[in-house]
Amino acid sequence: MSKIVKEFQLPYYAVIFSSQRTDGDKGYAKMADKMVELASLQEGFLGVESARDNELGITVSYWSSLESIKKWKNHSAHLIAQEKGKKVWYQSFSLRVCKVERDNFF
Question: Which Pfam families match (predicted)?
Fold first, then answer.
């Protein structure tokens, strides 16, 4: 589980990735850690929040621009992880990109 990320300059973008996994790890945890580490080095990356129970996982990454999201989507290592996800790790998933114009924290 990750910490709540806050304090970004508005507006910014959220990429919401919801997934149902296949059984077993099959190298998933190691690749997920690697992807977060690599994403954090990309220009425009602001942070990430992630939670998973037995059936559903939700990861939200935050970005300063649509261009930075596009560059991350097309990053060579990320493309490899995406393909393995489709073939090995996920039963199903959804991806949503949202513009954040207001946020509140407690």
Answer: ABM
Amino acid sitting at position 45 = F
Interatomic CA distance for residues 77 and 73, integer angstroms: 10
CATH, residue 24: 3.30.70.100
How far, rounded to the nearest angstrom, does the alpha carbon of residue 37 sit from its chain's CA centroid? 11
The residues near 74 (Cβ < 8 Å, ≥ 6 apart) are: none
pLDDT digit string, tens, across residues 2-45: 677 777 899 999 999 999 999 999 999 999 999 999 999 999 99
Instruction: Tell me whether residue 35 is in a domain.
Output: yes
Three-state secondary structure call for residue 50:
strand
- Strand partners of residue 14: 62, 98
Question: Does some domain include residue 5?
Answer: no
